[in-house]
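Entry for the shared binder. Reason: the reviewer on the internal report wants the predicted structure included alongside the sequence.
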Amino acid sequence: MLKLQGVRKSYGANEVVCGIDLELVPGECYGLLGPNGAGKTTTLRLALGLTDPDAGEITLLDEPIPRRAREARVRLGVVPQADNLDPDFTVVENLLVYGRYFGLRDEAIQQRIPRLLEFAGLQSRAASRIQALSGGMKRRLSLARALINDPDLIFMDEPTTGLDPQARHLIWARLKQLLARGKTILLTTHFMDEAERLCDRIGVMDHGRLICTGSPAQLVAQHIEPQVVEVYGEGAAQWAQRHGDQLCQRCERAGETVFCYAREAEPALRTLAGRHDLRYLHRPANLEDVFLKLTGRDLRD
């Protein structure tokens, strides 16, 4: 579906994609994760043929990229990070005009529109203009528009950013339906719970390199201790100094919170029982813990 081999891209002296190898197989959801500036957007642009690589080979849907990018994109759907719906058109008109870009006849597009509106939950909004839609409705319309050509592969760049929980869960349900129909999805997201719910495999990027790949469960098992105790409050740092290194394999501090990573959490929990000056949460390790361990807790701009 998509294969990158030794792909590199530099802007001046800054190499933003550093020899990436990546391959998608049919029917999977592959999550490309990374902090801001990691190289995810440039990687997507390279894969789409919108940016020429400095080195390496790219194959998209059996077509060499960028030489035959236009032919490959006929079988591709794209949901961009920012909505680019046409505000001058209604919901139906946005779908109709977009379908024409793929060379579809109006009759064929009109046949597909009712199913796409139902899929997006927008049957009652067919005649509405874009300005009248909520943010969640616009994202669902962007998803429906990306399916107008019945693509084999769908690129989704942070599809649920800015949505409320109800809209996010609806988008997740629709993506699972697409995967059940055999579609392949390349997903970028900053929501680790979204990646854990949807992705069969994940690649974590940082500083232009793909630093690890695997299923969410594999990454957690390989890179992080299984138990986490989060300790909150002004006395959390003192608690960590006294008990953390003895009872946990690793402690990290972020503000007034101490994250205690351990193979067995019970010894740490016993020291916290009855401490009214501290609040704590015991939970299993997750993908966000892996992400922060591999890429750091410092803010990226």
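Summary line for the report: DSSP finds eleven helices and 14 strands in the chain.
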